[in-house]
Amino acid sequence: MALAGNIAKVTRLGSYIGRSRRLIFNRIQRRGIAACIDPSVGLSDEQKEFQKVAFDFAANEMAPHMAEWDEKEMFPVETMRKAAQLGFGGIYVQPDVGGSGLSRLDTSVIFEALSTGCVSTTAYISIHNMCAWMIDTFGNPEQREKYCPELCSMDKFASYCLTEPGSGSDAASLMTTARLEGDHYILNGSKAFISGGGDTDVYVIMCRTGGKGAKGISCLVVEKGTSGLSFGKKEKKVGWNSQPTRAVILEDCAVPVTNRLGKEGQGFNIAMKGLNGGRINIASCSLGAAHASVQLARDHLTVRKQFGEALSNNQFLQFKLAEMATRLVASRLLVRQAAVALQEGRPDAVALCSMAKLFATDECFQICNQALQMHGGYGYLKDYAVQQFVRDCRVHQILEGTNEVMRMIIARSLLTDS
């Protein structure tokens, strides 16, 4: 369902407006967003509307449940389906198959706003969007019609399957095989650290149909319930607990040739194109965590007293807060520049996406960590949201390509571009 047609639905959520975005975690009455870190600056009127929808949804439907989802490791299916009713299930999927047809910049704005309500849940939504986009972009008309509408509505959920136990950063060395037998591929192998694994319905799997290296990799869509598809135990994680993570195991799993996206040998290219957008998405989730943490730290400094006066009067802490705000705005600008470059198909897009992911996830984690430090002992209590932002955004420096790999990509671009 197109997002532009859903703005009015926010009005029906209006009974929640006015509730503190973090009331469940903090007994602090939050003030408005400071102008110098306002994430709506520079956006069009339409983008501001999308952003408001996302902020309101984060405040009303996600933030009040964020701690519970984390503690009980709940996959909030119904909440995500509510998000899909607002157009967040296929944000940059084409409208003819149920998507919102928005730009990469629009998408970044939305994911940043949603992450102020729950980073972990938003990060899964971003992965789901990436899978839907891959099918929309590289699938044939029959595949697009079969999968995209139910993914955009989140009647079905998707998982991205690239990483293996023996191939993380070196994704081109993956070992999962797909042997052609008649009109089916027979898959054998396993995938590791799969977000949504076991609870989702559609698995976009990279597998080896040819020889060694990237050119031997193809992309197949495997549906839950397929014979030979099973899952490992649910992983116990530091953060990202509102989305299950399991190994995806393939044992003589027969998948129709008609489920292949693109041509044989095109899989690695499809995977990397998906990840370019995924890096912007995950960086945007880090922006949301950092934005919320800056505001939580500011509010805590104004109410907490030590040595007879508010912490906000301490110049050292003022300077730290100023640095946090500066890092947040700098990260946001870089992420949005990369989003525009990717949307326009510019030659610098891959390097900028890598820069954005590297810089924003590093800086935003430091912002969240400093915000926790400013809370003192309270920051280490699970009654306070700041500790969850720290735990949930830490993994962003690892997934979608580690930040060490981002440095390699950027360096390669610098050394090979004329």
What would the average pLDDT be, to the nearest integer? 93
Order of helices and strands: HHHHHHHEEEEEEEEHEEHHHH
Q: Low-confidence parts, pLDDT < 50 over ≥5 residues?
A: 6-30
Task: Determine the structural class based on helices, strands and strand pairing.
Answer: alpha+beta
Give the percentage of residues in beta strands. 5-15%
In whole angstroms, the N-to-C terminal distance is 44 Å
The number of E-state strands comes to 10
Largest beta sheet: strand ordering: 1-4-5-8
- Total helical segments: 12
**Helix proportion range:** 40-55%
Largest sheet: 4 strands, mixed
The coarse silhouette is globular
Computed over alpha carbons, the radius of gyration is 21 Å
